[in-house]
């Protein structure tokens, strides 16, 4: 199969497709598809996200706020809006490849420690395909995004599609608790299942061992980067 067919087939027949992707070192098409969807979603989102209000709220907290002229305040807010827009596009363009590379390294190392024999490029190919459910989630979120007339906050943008446990919580919930439960997402679980299936072939381990390694690595990431570290940051 071609790289594009393997990428699409991996969403509903992962056992065969991911094994073929790993053996043929196919990773360009899934990364390209996820990046295109992310950039396209970002282009639609920046027209609806309210970057100015949070910037104004932060500006009010600065010691020099009272000394600023209205023109200076407008300039500061305009700069923050530009940074938000550029950051949205940069995240869409760069984050898929960066996250795939970082995840592949951690998986490769984790399976080495667990007694597997994974190849790094093959692992990277499996990880790249496991990002495709993220693209599906963004596409599924488009109707909700396009029907929102009012400006969205960054939190509301993340909660457009109620596919995770965080959608059940109030917006006033602590950020680290919200991030922790938001990580338990249907599309994230789909990605994890693809990783576990693909790494059985790549690392030459049993399905149980692959599932345990993938789950432990994912849980460790969530607890450290989505819960513990945000807890240490000062609350605004």
In the predicted model, the low-confidence regions spanning at least 5 consecutive residues are: none
Helix content: over 70%
Q: What's the SSE pattern?
A: HHHHHHHHHHH
Structural class: mainly alpha
Gyration radius, rounded: 20 Å
Secondary structure tally: strands: 0
**Mean pLDDT across every amino acid position:** 91
How many structural domains can be distinguished in the coordinates?
1
Globally, the shape reads elongated
Percent strand equals under 5%
Largest sheet: none
Helical run tally: 11
Distance between the termini: 52 Å
Structure commentary:
This protein is mainly alpha-helical. The protein is 72% helix and 0% strand. Helix 1 packs antiparallel against helix 2 (14-23), helix 4 (52-60) crosses helix 5 (70-113) and helix 5 packs across helix 6. It starts with a helix and ends with a helix. The protein is elongated and about 65 Å long. It has one domain (3-232).
Which features characterize this protein?
236 residues, 11 helices, 0% strand, elongated
Structure, briefly:
The chain has 236 residues and is mostly helical. It has helices at residues 3-9, 14-23, 28-45, 52-60, 70-113, 120-130, 132-146, 154-158, 175-182, 186-203, 207-232.
Write the layout of secondary structure elements.
Blueprint: H1 3-9, H2 14-23, H3 28-45, H4 52-60, H5 70-113, H6 120-130, H7 132-146, H8 154-158, H9 175-182, H10 186-203, H11 207-232
Helix pairs in contact: 1-2, 2-6, 2-10, 3-5, 3-7, 4-5, 5-6, 5-11, 6-10, 7-10, 9-11, 10-11
């Amino acid at each position: 199969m071609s790289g594009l067919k393997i990428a699409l087939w991996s969403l509903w027949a992962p056992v065969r497709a991911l094994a073929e992707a790993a053996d043929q070192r196919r990773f360009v098409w899934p990364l390209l598809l996820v990046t295109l969807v992310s950039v396209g979603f970002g282009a639609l989102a920046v027209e609806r996200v309210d970057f100015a209000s949070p910037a104004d709220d932060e500006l009010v907290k600065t010691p020099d706020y009272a000394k600023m002229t209205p023109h200076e305040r407008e300039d500061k807010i305009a700069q923050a809006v530009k940074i938000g827009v550029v950051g949205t596009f940069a995240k869409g363009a760069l984050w898929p490849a960066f996250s795939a590379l970082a995840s592949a390294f951690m998986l490769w190392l984790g399976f080495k420690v667990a007694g597997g024999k994974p190849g790094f490029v093959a692992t990277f190919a499996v990880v790249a395909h496991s990002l495709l459910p993220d693209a599906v989630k963004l596409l599924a979120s488009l109707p909700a995004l396009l029907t929102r007339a009012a400006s969205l906050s960054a939190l509301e943008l993340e909660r457009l599609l109620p596919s995770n446990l965080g959608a059940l919580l109030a917006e006033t919930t602590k950020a680290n608790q919200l991030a922790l439960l938001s990580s338990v997402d249907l599309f994230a679980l789909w990605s994890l299942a693809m990783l576990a299936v693909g790494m059985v072939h790549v690392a030459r381990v049993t399905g149980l061992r692959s599932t345990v390694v993938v789950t432990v690595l994912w849980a460790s990431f969530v607890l450290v980067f989505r819960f513990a570290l945000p807890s240490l940051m000062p609350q605004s």
